Amino acid sequence: MPVPASKIEPEKPQNEHSTSRHVLIVDDSRLQRKILSSSVKRWGFRVTEADSGDKALELCRESTPDIILSDWMMPGMNGLEFCDAFRRLPGESYGYFILLTSKSEKGEVAQGLQAGADDFLTKPVNAHELRARISAGERILDMQHELTEKNRLISDTLAELQRVYDSLDSDLLEAKKLQQSLVRERQKTFDTAELSLMLRSSGHVGGDLVGFFPGQPGHLGLYAIDVSGHGISSALMTARLAGYLSATAPDQNVALRRQSDGSFKFRKPSCVIEDLNNLVLDEMDTEHYFTLMLADVNLETGHMLVSQAGHPHPAVQRRDGTVEQNGTGGFPVGLMSGITFEDFEIQLKPGDRVLMLSDGVTECPNQEGDMLEESGLEKMMNNMKDMSGQKFFDAMMWNLGAFSGLDEFPDDISGILFEYSGHKIP
User: Fold this and answer.
1) Where would a tag sit more exposed on the chain, N or C end, judged by fewer CB atoms within 10 A?
2) In the prediction, which pLDDT does 1 show?
3) How confident is the model at residue 424, as a pLDDT?
4) How far is CA 263 from CA 250, 260, 298, 351, 384, in A?
């Protein structure tokens, strides 16, 4: 039904975006298009006309209009079919679709909404109502434009964050390689013993470190460190501490003292830890502290002089399989000044071994939140008494995974396994 010309009143543009917005008018009636087009142009919009749904769809493929005024009843592709096809076109831009119809039944309205129409105008069209519906469409388009811009900003931000993450991830992978390289040898054979080391971070890098260094002839230094936390700053701390217990630069190793003849002698472990405590508090600007176990091992006799600074007790497994977990406990390094530490002795006999682990093992929780604790470690060692070297550590990690039900553990895990044979290993 044509729109009465008397009902169309010229109005000034009400929206600052109107002059740039594109309105597509679709109607098989030339007169209807002319009446609507004339009024919409007066309101400041750029107008394109189409006499059929097929022609309108072709125009939409070239450029998505901001607002579409389409008659429902047209030969060929009707307005409902055109709306449905329009909504299926690819692209990010949104077109506000107003369906002009003489239909007013709820079923027809629901059908139009299902096809993708945003609004309806009942013929004959009232000028004020048409302008109001177009203004409503403009508000929707403004919100859609704002949302699109925000989504684009979010996408750009996420892309930048991903680039930063990828760069950090790459750097952390390199840092992990460097940290793992601090443990140069994971397996070492001596005349009377086998030494195995294990280091596994909960993330890319961690705060655990284990190592060894030669002392005076026939002696071996062992150390196990667990810095608070397990991130980048903890890893940097372990790297610095590794320099103080260096195996390649004995002059820089605080556990060794050069003798008058040029040789080196192992200092008492308790004195070494006291010096490290003072050094951390006086010279390092850090909030980190760390637990430490330091041992002077006599490779000939199996005698160990050990000092413990908050690190878990060493687990000594005798040749018959029994496990002893004793120590002095001690206070972590880097928390308080003036702390003294004690030495204690472990005497290994042929066939005995000692295991030094970080608390990532004994404090590993299961699904119920219960930790493995020392009793669980003892049971685990009993089950693995016939395993040695790296196979022992592999089995330990498998058993720890079975206990916790986790693929990744919540804390760093490190360990030293020193197996004393008491005779020369061929």
Assistant:
1) C
2) 43
3) 64
4) 10, 7, 17, 31, 40
- Give the pLDDT score at 173: 62
| Tokens found for residue 286 | 């850090």
Whole-number pLDDT of residue 51? 94
Q: Which two tokens stand for residue 152?
A: 């684009």
Pairing of strands 67-71, 22-26: parallel
Return the sign of the alpha-carbon dihedral for residues 163, 165, 168, 172: negative
Q: What is the pLDDT of residue 105?
A: 64
d(CA 422, CA 298): 11
Q: How far apart are the first and last CA of the chain?
A: 107
If phi > 0 it is left, if psi is from -120 to 50 it is alpha, else beta; for residue 201 that is beta
pLDDT given for residue 11 in this prediction: 47
Q: Which residues pair with 189 in a beta bridge?
A: 194
Residues 356 and 212: their CA atoms lie apart, in Å, by: 12
Give the number of other CB atoms < 10 A from CB of residue 23. Answer: 25
Domains belonging to the chain, first-starting first, are 5-150 (3.40.50.2300), 182-420 (3.60.40.10)
pLDDT of residue 206: 74
Question: Pairing state of beta strands 343-347 and 323-325?
Answer: unpaired
Which secondary-structure segment (H or E) carries 22? strand 22-26
Q: Which residues share a beta bridge with 418?
A: 195, 354
Stretches in the chain below the pLDDT threshold 70? 1-19, 103-106, 168-183, 204-205, 230, 424-426
Beta partners for residue 315, in sequence order: 325, 355
3-state secondary structure at position 389:
helix
159, with CB counted inside 10 A (0-12, 13-18, 19+), is: exposed
Is residue 124 reached through a cis peptide bond, with omega within 30 degrees of 0 on the bond before it? yes
Indicate the angle between helix axes 53-62 and 79-87, nearest 10 degrees.
20
Q: 19 and 44 in contact (C-beta within 8 Å)?
A: yes
User: How far is the C-alpha of 348 from the C-alpha of 304, rounded, in Å?
Assistant: 8
Of 309, 292, 167, 142, residue with least CA distance to 222: 292
CB atoms within 10 A of CB 27: 27
At 284 the pLDDT is 83
What's the predicted TM-score (pTM) here? 0.64
Beta bridge partners of 293: 224, 308
The contacts of residue 68 (CB under 8 Å, 6+ apart) are 23, 24, 26, 56, 86, 95, 96, 97, 98
User: What's the pLDDT at 172?
Assistant: 60
**Cα(22)–Cα(63) distance, integer angstroms:** 10
